[in-house]
Design a protein that fits this description.
Blueprint: H1 7-20, E1 35-39, E2 44-47, H2 63-77, E3 85-89, H3 95-109, E4 115-118, H4 127-135, E5 141-145, H5 157-166, E6 175-181, H6 189-198, H7 202-214, E7 218-222, H8 227-240, H9 247-261, H10 266-279
Parallel strand pairs: 1-4, 3-6, 3-7, 4-5, 5-6
Antiparallel strand pairs: 1-2
Length: 286
C-alpha cells in the first residue's frame, strides 16, 4: 500500500515526466473538413469549420468570371484537364470571394468533395512539403493563395514557379492552384523597370519573374463596377437578408456610402450592407 505522504511527490514526478514527453504527432486528415489552412511550421492542415464566404448568386457584375472559374473547377472536380487560375484586378472586386464561392458551388453539385487549402504567401517556400502530403491523398484539392505578389528581393516565387509547371515531379494530378492578385504580372511595374534598367541583359533580368504569371493557364480580370452594377449588388444583398428599406432610400444611402469610400466595388457594397443591417437592427448570416 502506497504511503499517503508519498502521493504528492509521486504526482509531482508524473507531471514532470508528462511535460518532458514529446507532444503526440498529429495526423493530417482531409476528411476532417472541406477547407483547411496550411500551417507551414508544423506541417499541419488546420481544418476550417466554417468558411467566411458569400453565396455565389450574391456576386454580381462578374458573370463572365464566374462562368470561367466554375467551368474550370468543375472539369477539375471530374478528373478532367483544368488550368491553374490567376484572378487579378482591382481591390475589393470579388476575386477571393469568387474562389471560395466556387468551391462551395462545386461541392453542392457533386458527390466527391473538393478540398480548399489556403496557403499564405510567405509560406510558398513550403509548397513542396504541402504537395508531398496531398500527392498521396484520395481527394482533389485546390491550393488557394490570396493577394499574391512579389517584391524585387523576394525569391519565394521560385518555389511556386517550379510547382506550377517546371519541377521534376510537376503538379500532382489531384491538385490545382488558384491565386488572386492586384497585379497581372505579380510584381509592380516600377520593380520591373528598375530591374530592366540595372541589368546587363534587361530582357532576361525580368523574364523569370514575369514568366511566373504565364504559368497560370487561366487569367481572369476584375475591374471596378459601374453604378448600375453597384446598385444590383446591394439590391441582391438587401433582398437576400430581408432588409426593410425602400429601393430609393437604399440607393440614396448607398451613393452616400460610396462617396465616403471613393470607390464602387463588391467589397464596398458588402461593407455598406453590414452598416445598414446594423442600423436596422437586422442580423446577417452568410
Amino acid at each position: 500500500m502506497t504511503d499517503p505522504n508519498l502521493l504528492p511527490l509521486l504526482q509531482s514526478i508524473a507531471e514532470s515526466l508528462s511535460r518532458l514527453a514529446p507532444p503526440a504527432t498529429r495526423t493530417n486528415d482531409l476528411d476532417a473538413s472541406d477547407a483547411f489552412v496550411w500551417q507551414a511550421e508544423s506541417g499541419w492542415l488546420e481544418p476550417v469549420k466554417t468558411v467566411s464566404r458569400v453565396h455565389i448568386n450574391l456576386l454580381r457584375g462578374i458573370d463572365r468570371a464566374k462562368e470561367m472559374l466554375i467551368e474550370n473547377t468543375e472539369r477539375f472536380a471530374k478528373g478532367m484537364p483544368a488550368n491553374n487560375a490567376l484572378l487579378w484586378g482591382a481591390r475589393g472586386t470579388g476575386k477571393s470571394s469568387l474562389v471560395k464561392a466556387t468551391h462551395a458551388q462545386i461541392n453542392e453539385r457533386g458527390k466527391a468533395k473538393l478540398k480548399l487549402i489556403e496557403i499564405h504567401r510567405e509560406d510558398l517556400v513550403t509548397l513542396p512539403k504541402l504537395l508531398s502530403i496531398l500527392r498521396a491523398a484520395k481527394h482533389r484539392c485546390i491550393i488557394f493563395c490570396d493577394d499574391l505578389s512579389f517584391d524585387t528581393a523576394d525569391t519565394s516565387y521560385k518555389s511556386l514557379k517550379a510547382v506550377l509547371e517546371g519541377g521534376i515531379e510537376g503538379r500532382p494530378s489531384n491538385v490545382i492552384f488558384y491565386a488572386t492578385s492586384n497585379r497581372r504580372h505579380l510584381m509592380a511595374r516600377e520593380m520591373i523597370e528598375n530591374e530592366r534598367s540595372t541589368a546587363i541583359n534587361p530582357s532576361e533580368a525580368v523574364e523569370e519573374k514575369v514568366s511566373l504569371s504565364d504559368r497560370f493557364g487561366l487569367w481572369i480580370g476584375f475591374h471596378n463596377c459601374d453604378q448600375d452594377t453597384f446598385f444590383a449588388i446591394i439590391e441582391g444583398y438587401a433582398e437576400t437578408f430581408k432588409l426593410p428599406i425602400e429601393k430609393d432610400a437604399l440607393h440614396a444611402q448607398a451613393i452616400e456610402w460610396q462617396m465616403t469610400r471613393g470607390a464602387r466595388s463588391g467589397r464596398v457594397a458588402w461593407q455598406f450592407i453590414q452598416d445598414l443591417a446594423g442600423r436596422l437592427g437586422k442580423t446577417i448570416e452568410t
